[in-house]
Amino acid sequence: MPRALKITYYIVLGCLALVALLLIFSTFYIPGNIKFYVVQSGSMEPEIKTGSIVLVKPASEYKIGDVITFGPVAKGKVPTTHRIAEVRVQTGEPVYVTKGDANEAADTREISKKDIFGKVLFDVPFVGYAVAWAKTPVGFLILVIIPAVLIIYEESKKLFLALRHWRKKEDETVPDKT
Questions:
Q1: pLDDT value at position 130?
Q2: Where residue 127 falls among pLDDT bands split at 50, 70, 90?
Q3: How far apart are CA 91 and CA 108, in angstroms?
Q4: In 10 A of CB 116, how many CB atoms?
């Protein structure tokens, strides 16, 4: 394989592996109760861009200025990532008023602590587009299944050639019994 093609192959393979890892991390449990979420709107721009992935971890307390991800846990419902604008106390428990940085007004819904998935630790711009696409059937096929089949094919081919080479060597070392 020519050197340029080999380099391109490994770069593409590395990118696919990165997206596959992010897909796995955004889907399955990570120790430390850390989760990844894809930001699907521009309400937090310019701080967090649409299509970013945010790393979220639950905290013992939340304060004004913290960027949090919250929302319904129901399947198909999209979580929201906004900044805490105000903390109020209702029946002895804190409730949070949030606001997107790009929004003019605060959110109308008050958020209880049980609705908060966690505090945003950091974000990676635009990677969320690839992760969201990889979660679709076509994206999963192109980014996970096809590369996996190609890797298995290439490794099987190498194994077959190595076995053939080993057999050929073995046949050459065995004396002829005629």
A1: 80
A2: confident
A3: 19
A4: 21
Cβ atoms within 10 Å, residue 110 = 15
Helices (H) and strands (E) in the chain, counts: 4, 7
Interaxial angle between packed helices 127-134 and 3-27, expressed in degrees from 0 to 180 and rounded to the nearest 10: 80
pLDDT in tens, 145-174: 887 888 888 889 889 998 888 888 777 776
Q: What does DSSP assign to residue 105?
A: S
The average confidence (pLDDT) of the chain is: 84
CA distances from 29 to 13, 23, 24, 33, 43 (A): 25, 12, 9, 7, 27
Q: What token pair was written down for 176?
A: 């002829």
